[in-house]
Amino acid sequence: MKKSFRRILSLILVLTLTTPCFVYLSKINAGAYPGKIPVICIYGEDTPLGIKQEDGHYERVDSNIDVEKVKHAFLDDPNIIIRASLTQDWTEVCDIITELIIDAYKDIVLDENGEPTDGSESIYTSFSVKSLKNRYNNPNADINTFGFNYDWRLDPYENMERLHSFVDAVIEATGSEKVALYGRCLGACYEVLYYDLYKDERISDIILSHSALLGMPPIGEAFSGNLSVNADSVERIAYEYDLGINYKVNDNFTVTDDLIRQVLKILVDIYGLDMFCWVTTNAYQHIYDYITPRVIKKSFGSFPGYWAMCEDKYYEDAKKVVFAGEEEKYANFIKKIDKYHYNIMTRAEDILKEAADNGVKISSIVKYGYQLCPGIEDSNALSDHILKVGPASLGATCSGNDKYFTDEYVKSETAKGNGKYISPDLKINASTCMFPDTTWFIKNVEHKYNPDSVNDLVFAIANDKNATVDTYEEYPQFLYHDEESGKIVPLDPSVHISRSDEFNRTIANSPIRKIKELFRPLFVFTTILVKIFGVQPRAGH
Predict the structure, then answer these.
(1) Four-CA torsion 472, 473, 474, 478, nearest 10 degrees
(2) How far apart are CA 388 and CA 217, in angstroms?
(3) Which residue has the higher pLDDT, 244 or 202?
(4) How far is Cα 342 from Cα 333, in angstroms, rounded to an integer?
(5) Looking at CB atoms within 10 Å, which of 63, 289, 328, 387 has the fewest?
(6) Maximum Cα–Cα distance across the chain
(7) What's the half-sphere exposure (Cβ side, CA atoms, 13 Å) at 438?
(8) d(Cα 421, Cα 413) in Å, to the nearest integer?
(9) Above 50 in pLDDT, residue 4?
(10) CA angle 264, 269, 275 (to 5 degrees)
């Protein structure tokens, strides 16, 4: 039950606050690529953090929600929520949640300059040519994969000198003339920054995997204080995830995942969940100025590395929300994040084009098959739960998560010669990608997972200078991750039916949902009246 409580708690925080990225971002495991070209894997939020002790060992530090504190804060006095709902004064609730989030990040938060104050750093900081060579010469080791670990909280520029030294060391240890850079999530930002900074001719490939290069929606939405929860996204997430709930209330009644899904379905059918989500969004829109700046600066918003993933469309608004009135205090921090944003994110496509013109092969691996996490604008966009497919693929045209390309669209694109770029499940048109012939899409694998089978694809890309989506029969442009076998195989929509597909077939496009939509204007009209004549939510003094 403790595990289930934590999962439910995390979901609640996602729906009501500015922390969707904290809930969904998870550690990513490294992989192996036996072959000729050394592959330097630049992880995302992966390297553990710690404080070095006198004996040379590290004491681990991390962000962590204290479940007991949450229980005491809300379960000991349930009237807190009732009072706020009746009076629409959410100050007390905001103060409690703010304190809980700040407490969760207290061991890894950075100061106003974006620097650690407690000596915390990436645990795996040391490397040497000798250690890399020993690994390379060990026949039992994954000799051609070299993982670059770094403090992902810091300004990416602060890690560049170390990454350059790591490339030097790998080249010397292996004797190879070239290395491939393989960046996952935030790591994709690093490899593009590296190329822009050094124009290193020893780089054969820039492989972007579930790339946050053009931004991560939960980051931008959280930093700018946006929240838009809709009932469909809440219901869908319950189908896409197993919460593992199996709580026996008494001998005759047990709460399970299936029961929760059934209840949610009924609530959505009758607009009950729609109303709850509208109230949540409406309340948040009135109180975010009170809560967002306090939460963000004292938690993940203190990480310049996270600001590197703030979408351009949110960036300036996010700075105004977070640093309003304290621009002078955070001047050095703002200078750091501006440097990356305006030198790299807004120029990313130009940098990649330049690299390609200079002989570097640019490839992308994009995961999909899920909606964005609840609370995000356009949460029904096709994604890996964290990143939209369009930006992550540098331009793919996508249907909604619950929609498909029409026959007319497919015929039109086929007539243009783009038929081969349309996914078999009619959700993605890769012809509009920046690099359509070297962009692969893998369905049914979430952002936080990196199956070992994906590593084989990376190896194939890195070791064939001319590899495209047409080169390998086993690796066409559109693939599917089979959860049972762990393998990626060519996508066959008649066989490969994901949880999201099943939800679309049985619920999202069911007759009752189509009938429900006929009454949506009445629901919208009702919410407008409530907004005009009702008591507006407030917080702060």
Answers:
(1) 90
(2) 8
(3) 202
(4) 14
(5) 328
(6) 74
(7) 21
(8) 9
(9) no
(10) 75
DSSP assignment of 289-330 equals: HHHHHHHHHTTGGG-HHHHTTS-HHHHHHHHHHHHTT-TTTT
Shortest CA distance to 530 belongs to which of 274, 246, 193?
274
8-state DSSP, 74: I
Sign (positive or negative) of CA dihedral 220, 50, 96, 236 = positive
- Name 397's bridge partners: 429
Residues 210/367, Cβ–Cβ less than 8 Å: yes
pTM (2 d.p.): 0.88
| Encoded tokens for 374 | 């609840």
Per DSSP bridges, beta strands 253-256 and 246-250 are antiparallel
φ, ψ (nearest 5 deg) of residue 233? -70, -35
Side-chain-side CA neighbours of 328 within 13 Å: the count stands at: 1
Question: 393 and 407 in contact (C-beta within 8 Å)?
Answer: no
- Give the chain's end-to-end CA distance (angstroms, integer): 38
- Under 8 Å CB-to-CB from 374, ≥6 apart: which residues? 14, 15, 20, 229, 230, 233, 234, 237
DSSP class of 210: S
Greater pLDDT, 443 or 508: 443
Short-list 227, 193, 239, 229, CA closest to 213: 193
* pLDDT tens digits along 253-285: 888 888 889 999 999 998 888 888 888 888 888
- Which residues have C-beta within 8 Å of that of residue 63, sequence separation ≥ 6? 22, 104, 105, 107, 108, 299, 300
- Do 235 and 273 meet the contact criterion of CB atoms below 8 Å apart? yes
